[in-house]
């Protein structure tokens, strides 16, 4: 899917393209000049604050049949493609699905596994001789839900499978994440069969043929679940999820064990409301970053991102969200030291769910975020960085052939920097020429027109955090490009308001200058924003 761009598609640009180099006689109260001032002040703030690459859709694929199908996890493969695990549904139920795609996202093969009841896959990892998969089965073993571990060769042919768990009536035992060890496999999930309370976080170690070597459960009298598993320290492993209690509700829950399953430590992290961790990744410094949800944010749920150092102490905690329901389901550390999170958001014009993708720097400060989707519900379930961008897995009801389909998107970093975009737009729209030696890190007042600043004849360039005086009627709304929200407006006296220049979500400014004439369907709502 190619993306065609045109400089004539943005009416906002052409509304102020006729302006020329301003003079002291300009009437800044005029609406067109006010629009120019606001846009350029924000552009200069972007120019000074950072140079960033913005992702653009390279391709997107859907996979599935007429019923509800989903992809819940993936792993990159040694041939440059990816292996996806999830489920494919029929009129009788769901089977675990393993789907192999190439570097361009095209299907290479798929295999389904299951019986007469629902069987789902939640975790997958490439091994030296194929793939290992974990999930739940209602078709095999005794009980309504048991943990299911499968081993396949490189073409998806099943080599062996085992069911683990006890005798339960419902929602019994399941696995969410699997790690290959030198002498076997380690799984994390949940158990009701061996729990002290409702459910416990469950870790199971098997040998290379799936024979159980040890099993450990951790938790209290309420519900405790593990979702993600990582190597931790020498020979140890770290599981993350949530723990529940009557006093504080749900808290983030971390459990570290050694190679024999002996508890090294466990710790919970809570706050006001419920918190849960659904995914984790190692940081450059040897700590861990976790994403999930929190009730302590702005909306019903907000995306939670927490960075812990090697001593298990939080370096920082961030939440991202609007008035609706936002959840982070997968996190990946990026090569620039930042973090990438995907999940879902209901903060859309229609109130449905969109796939949410956001990028932060090393301190957790938001660099950009995207809402991806169509007219129905769409969510993101897994994300990874590639050599030239990002790969995102999800479930879509907006696109594809069924009620829900597996959704795979490749986003590629645009090499054009924010500075290039802003300078090019200024040159075209205002017929001015910014000095070539001005960079995003050394922009100076002398390099800017003398009217870009805090006042009509100010010679100081607007920096992030500066205040721009605006007429009250302009400041009451969300401003140009959807960047300035009501929460960023404060009284300034004299019938006007001051708006603080934000340092985040400048991606909308790029889209203001560069809008496709015919955007791909998968991103059409993003370009409506």
What does this entry look like structurally?
This protein starts with 10 loop residues before the first helix and ends with a helix. Residues 1-51 and 417-529 have low confidence and may be disordered. By secondary structure, the chain is mainly beta. Helices cover 10% and strands 45% of the residues.
How much helical structure, as a percent, in the residues?
A: 10-25%
Instruction: Identify the overall geometry.
Output: globular
Radius of gyration: 26 Å
Low-pLDDT stretches are: 1-51, 417-529
Number of DSSP strand runs? 31
**Portion in strands:** 35-45%
Secondary-structure content class: mainly beta
First and last CA, distance: 21 Å
> In DSSP terms, counting alpha (H) and pi (I) runs of 4 or more, how many helices?
6
Major beta sheet, strand line-up: 1-28-27-26
Mean pLDDT: 74
Largest sheet: 4 strands, antiparallel
